[in-house]
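wait is this the right file?? whatever heres the structure
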């Protein structure tokens, strides 16, 4: 019984993968154009949203460099890219789980808010230059 359920689940995944490859290239959503349109336009909300996306990610300095390069090549402004990268390196969910042992929830929330404000200001400053 369990084996048959697993086969059906994989069958649905395979069907989706096969169906996706049949869609014409003009109809597929390109991540590069989506990133350029949503975050690369220089709107005021792009930097805070990039920081909010980057905070829960878990990465180190050497692992974020290729991601930063690809974001810059896709047309993301330097301030938005740097704010995203700083937030993903400086703050992560495992880090906050460890800090929970020595910090109260209120202090952790203050720390997250402080990081969000500082990274957003740095991103806006670099985008304005």
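ok assuming it is, sequence goes like this
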């Amino acid at each position: 019984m369990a084996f048959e359920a697993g086969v059906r689940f994989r069958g649905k995944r395979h069907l989706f993968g096969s169906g996706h490859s049949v869609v014409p290239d003009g109809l597929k959503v390109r991540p590069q154009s989506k990133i350029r349109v949503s975050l690369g336009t220089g709107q005021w909300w792009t930097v805070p949203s990039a920081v909010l996306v980057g905070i829960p990610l878990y990465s180190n300095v050497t692992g974020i460099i290729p991601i930063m390069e690809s974001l810059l090549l896709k047309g993301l402004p330097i301030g938005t890219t740097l704010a995203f990268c700083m937030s993903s390196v400086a703050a992560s969910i495992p880090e906050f789980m460890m800090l929970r042992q020595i910090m109260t929830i209120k202090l952790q929330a203050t720390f997250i808010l402080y990081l969000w404000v500082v990274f957003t200001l740095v991103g806006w400053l670099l985008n304005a230059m």
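Residues 91 and 111 are 10 Å apart (CA to CA). so i think its the right one actually
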